[in-house]
Amino acid sequence: MDEPLDDGELAAEVVINLVKHFEGCKLKAYLCPAGKLTVGYGHLVLPEDGIELGQTIELWEAEAFLYDDIQIATRGVMRQVDVELHPFQLAALVDFVFNLGSGQFGTSTLLKKVNSGDHAGAALEFKRWIFAGGKPLQGLARRRDAEAGLWISGHAMTTRWSEVLIS
Predict the structure, then answer these.
(1) What DSSP string runs through 16-76?
(2) What's the pTM value of the predicted model, to 2 decimals?
(3) Taking Cα atoms as reference points, which of 43, 65, 89 lies closest to residue 81?
(4) Is pLDDT at 108 greater than 90 in this prediction?
(5) N vs C: which end of the chain shows fewer Cβ within 10 Å?
(6) What sign does the CA torsion over 20, 22, 24, 28 have?
(7) What is the tens place of the pLDDT at every residue in 40-58?
(8) Hey, what domains does the chain have and what are their CATH numbers?
(9) Are 19 and 44 a contacting pair, CB within 8 Å?
């Protein structure tokens, strides 16, 4: 029998599945809706990657970029969040930062609401981030809905377990 996942493993598993679902895997480098060179599971191509528009990578390279990018996004969240998070909440924020970047998150009202403990307000903030290239995108709206749902379910689970443990 498999051992249960710890909180960090659970968050990682959830965010990997979330990113793969919303990004899909494109092995041929392309320009995303925001006009940025992208490949694999939404990896923003950096100059040091040595990848050009139209170039094809291997699946193992896409997977390596994915895991590196998730680690970077996780560090970005952990550096900026001052409160304890349920694994689903962590996964929601890591997916958000994976998609938008740590800088955008760091100056967002979402982060302010997270750090102030305003769970309902934070859930609503996810839904404001649906634009790319100045246009609302249905795919981003679906992604933000999924993140907000994870955020709220994590809060509900934490609150419920706190009530059970206290009583």
Answers:
(1) HHHHHHHH--EEEEEE-TTS-EEEETTEEPPGGG---TT-B--HHHHHHHHHHHHHHHHHH
(2) 0.88
(3) 89
(4) yes
(5) N
(6) negative
(7) 999 999 999 999 999 999 9
(8) 7-166 (1.10.530.40)
(9) no
Spatial distance between the Cα atoms of 29 and 166, rounded to a whole number of angstroms: 52
| Residue 76 confidence class, pLDDT cut points 50, 70, 90 | very high
Catalytic residues: 23, 32
- Judged by DSSP in three states, 118 sits in coil
Largest CA distance in the chain: 59
What is d(CA 97, CA 40) in angstroms, rounded to the nearest whole number?
Answer: 17
* pLDDT at residue 9, as a whole number: 85
| CA-closest candidate to residue 94, choices 143, 158, 135 | 143
Distance in angstroms (rounded) separating the CA atoms of residues 84 and 78 = 10
Give the residue carrying structure tokens 């609302």: 136
8 Å CB contact between 125 and 108: yes
Other CB atoms within 10 Å distance of the CB of residue 73: 23
Amino acid making up residue 133:
G
Q: Average of pLDDT values for 57-84?
A: 97
